[in-house]
Structures are given as structure tokens and as C-alpha cells.
Request: fold
Amino acid sequence: MRCMSILWAEAVKSHQHNFHNKLVYFSLLIWPALLFVTSYYSFKPFNLSATGPLSAYIETDQIILFLLTGYLAYIFFWSLVQSAWNMSYERQAGTLELIFLTPVSRITVMYARAAGNLFEAVWLFTLFTLLVLLTTGQADHIHWANVPIALLFLSISAIVWGGFLNIVFLFSRDAGILFTIFEEPMQFFSGVRIPVLAFPVWGKVIAFFFPLTYVLDIFRKLILDGAGLLQLIDQFLMLAGVLAILFTVSVLLLKKAEHHAKETGNMVLF
Amino acid sequence: MIEAKGLKKTYTISKKAGFLRKEKQKVKAVDGIDLTISEGEIVGLLGLNGAGKTTTIKMLCTLLNPTAGTISVDGLDAVCDAMAVKGLVNMIAGGERMLYWRLTGAENLRYFGKLYGLHGLELEEKISSLLSQVGLSEVSDTPVELYSKGMKQRLQIARGLINDPRYLFLDEPTLGLDVPVAKQLRETVKNLAKEQQKGILLTSHYLEEVEELCDRVYIIEKGKIVLHDTPQKITETVVNEFHVSVETRTLSALEQSKLAKGLPSCKIQFLPSSDGTILEIKAPFDPTSIIIAICVEQKISIQKLELKRPRLEDAILALAKEKSA
Ligand SMILES: Nc1ncnc2c1ncn2[C@@H]1O[C@H](COP(=O)(O)OP(=O)(O)OP(=O)(O)O)[C@@H](O)[C@H]1O
Ligand SMILES: [Mg+2]
Reply:
């Protein structure tokens, strides 16, 4: 109950602060749509026939679906990198310190912040995805019955991920490096555009470190291949493990972050 | 009651000592402070820039851990029971930060209220009563960025009262406000202590404010308390100089020398005014009776006599002079 109240408070706050003007639609829709379109057309000139190199990993006539699902999942994850980035605003405004002045459960605020931002950041691109599916006649290849559960898993994973990022931003005003790490590399190594299986070994090792890799694998198998939950039990266990590690690290980091702030007074430095 | 004993805070900062080299350096921001704040009392914390006022306040409201010393808030330890203490205290800083500018006044209070675990009707009632208490009911649905400085400061006060704290820390609450707005704010602060029995710790660079509001004052310098008393006592003990100003008809040179002779060990200045002479006298004792006696003897009529009460400001200046001497 208390969690929901704080989730709603965070959603209202982020709505007013981050989604208040029309420009924001650029980053919510135009930018991801452009990403999708440009990667689609950069595949075009290559050999996509059944004898081409990619055909070993994806059904090449489904490349639109592969990319759409990839970018949809990516936008869920990426939008929370942006929302964590907004933490630096709170640090400057001094409101971050005020949050820590209250006795609220810190971990609740961190996840509520992620969850409160998520829906508003992704609904537009989700609609766009739907629209592309319908207009390109690809809707028949989608296993619609699996869509709700796939979106649920995607959302939960994104929130665990977003909470982690929020906590990382508590440590430092210089966490901007995360932008560099998570924009292009996360897109590439998580298999948004190219299947992870097609990577050389070193690429697979890097992919291993991005939670999005595991989520995206399950997401595609559910939606595109119509796999049943039982069939994916191994993948689910893997994802659960990754999320559990992420959660544990988050809890520990959060404790450390507050302790560090109490020693150095860094929560107001900007 | 809040009781701080032997409070110390040392920051470790890294200083540039070359292009890549950094040197660790320790800064003693607070260096052994004892203080108490009771409910219903306004306590002042005075000191020059960098004396350690903000650091002290942040330790008292659990945002910083002391390097040494203890803080007890109604029997709870500010470090071990920090979460419980957070429910009993709140902090308000001057300036326009510490609010969500794109949220309305009511939305700001709602957000922070929820963090304190308030919800539903109780929260809504609290918000509207606080907004009317600080006179912002009419603009409750206007975004804060459209507020004036004074309105933002009043909203901060409302925010600081959202958890109905027993103790409130005010760090330069009237910073940058103009005279009537600051005055109104002082009234509010006085009421909080006297009517709602909140214990208040106030820092300020405006000495009249401290003099007017505070029951007791701590003066700190380089992290140490150098004086602790009521504003009146501090003034009396530190400023042993009486300042009297007398307006008379124009005085002749002879009369002037008579007066000067009658008041040895005093500094006298004779200033011509439009219709007479003004005497400015500084004495180590109260010289009014002697002045009157001489004037009666010399048949000099006194148009106006004023004993200027020494102010806290004079006390601080005198203290600073003593230190540098
Ligand atoms: N987070 C910090 N890290 C390192 N040093 C700090 C930090 N905060 C304050 N200091 C140092 O501690 C000392 C006391 O600072 P503090 O802010 O408590 O003073 P103050 O009395 O509030 O001053 P002012 O009147 O200017 O607000 C100063 O020397 C300051 O440079
Ligand atoms: Mg200060």
C-alpha cells in the first residue's frame, strides 16, 4: 500500500518534470523510431537470403519483427538510464537530500522512481510498434497470447535495472559515463540488432554482462516463437539469477551510498 | 529535548597537488560542540561564514554522521536510531532550492507528505491547512517556478512542517527576503515555538533577527562554541560601552569644554545640526546623570536625549576585534 502511494508520487513528479513539454515526444517516439528504421535499412543491402550469413540465426523474412522486438525491449531499458540521469537534477535542486531527510524506505523510492518513469516513457513507442506490425502485415507472426506475460517480464526486469541505475547515480554526479556505456554498446551487445549467437566469443562474453540480453532472449522466444513458459524454464532461471544478483548489489550499494553521503556530505555537491 | 555532546565533524577532502596527484586533507568543520534545544524554545547559532553552522545542523537532522560525539533527540540516538529521529525533526534552508519547481505548491507537499507515510484524506487536510497557515492557499495549484522568492520560502516552511516535527532546524531562513516578508516569516517562526511548542534551531546572518527571536544564542567560531547566553547577556558582557546622543541649542566653545571636562574618560563629539548642537558620547559607564547635571548647571536646555542600547551586532563586532587583537 505504502509502495503504491510512493510509486504514484514518483509517477506524478516525473510526469511534471520530465514529460511536460512537446519536445519530449522526440525522445519518446521519433528517436527510437529512427533507430529502428535506420537499422532496418542498413540490413537491406546485405545478403538476407536463406544462404546469407544471418539466416543461420534469424529467419530473415522476419527481420522487421526481430528489430521491432529488439528496440521495444531496448527502449524499456534505455528510458530508465535517462530517468536515472535526471537524478542529477535532484542533486542540484537539493531535493535528493530532502528525500534522505525523510524516514521513507530508500529502496522503495529507488524502484518506485524507476516504475513511475517507465510507463510514461514507453507507451508511445509501444503504440508505434503495434502500428508497424499492423501496417506491414506482420501481425500474424506474433503469438499474441504470450504478449501480456512477455511485457510483464520485460517491465519487471526493466524496473530492477532502473532501480540499480538510480542507486549508482546516488554515488556520483559524474555517473554520466553510464550514458556512454549504455547507449550504443547496450544496443549492440544485448542483441537488439544482431543476434547474440552471431557474435564471436568475446562479444558473447560482453553480452553476458547486460541484463537486457537475457530479457530480450526470453521476450523474443515468447512473442516470436510462441514458446511456452515451461520450455523457457532454463532461461527464466538464468534471468531470475541475474535479477537477484542485480537486486542484491543494489541493496548493498544503496546502504553504502547513504553511509558515504553521511560521511562526506556529497549529496549536495554538484 | 535535543542534547548534543562533544560534537565533531572532520571532512576529508582531496586537494590537487599537481596534475594527477591528489593530497588528502582533513578539515575540522565542527570541533567539539555541546548544545541543547528544548521544546518551545528558539535557539540561535551564530558565526561567520564557514564557522560550521550548516554542518552542525546537518548532523542534528541525521544527514551527516558526526566524527565524534553524541546527539540524543528525546532519548533517541541520531546515528543508531536515525530513521526514528527523522520522524521527529525537519530542516529548512534559505534560498530557492529544495523544491520541485515544475510541481505546484500542493503537489510538492503531497510528494513529501507521502514520503513521511501520510496519505488519503489526512494528507489532503494537512496540505490545505499548511498552505493556509503560510498564506499560499490561493496559489496552491500554481507551479512553484512562478512563485516569488518569499512565496517559495513560505512553501519551504510548509514543507518543513509536513511531518509535524517536534524540532525544526532553520538554516538562514530569511536569506534574500525583503524586510516585510522576512518580518512575516519571523512571526511564523515565533508562533511555531510559542504556540506549537516546537524546538527551533536557527542560523542567520541578520543579527536583529537572532536578537528578536532567540531565547538563547550560541556563537561558534572555527567549529567551537565561544559564547553561549541570552542575546541580552551577551550584549551586556561583551559591549561595555554606552552610547548617548544629546541634542541642545548651539553650544559655545566654553560650554563645550565644560562638558568635556565633566566627562573624563569619555569620547565626546560635537556635531553642528540645523538648530543647535548634537553631542555624541561614548562612555564605559552610563553617563546620562552626569550629562543632565552639567546641562542644568550651565543652563543648557536639552531638546532630546537618547541612550542607544548596545546591540548584538556590536557584541559580535567587539568579539571579532578582541580575537584579532
Ligand atoms: N561537504 C563538504 N566537504 C568538505 N568540506 C566541507 C563540506 N561542507 C562544508 N565544508 C567545510 O566545512 C567548514 C564549515 O562549513 P559550514 O557550511 O558548516 O559553515 P557555515 O557556518 O554554515 O557557513 P555559512 O555561513 O557560509 O553558511 C567550511 O570550512 C567548509 O569549507
Ligand atoms: Mg551555512
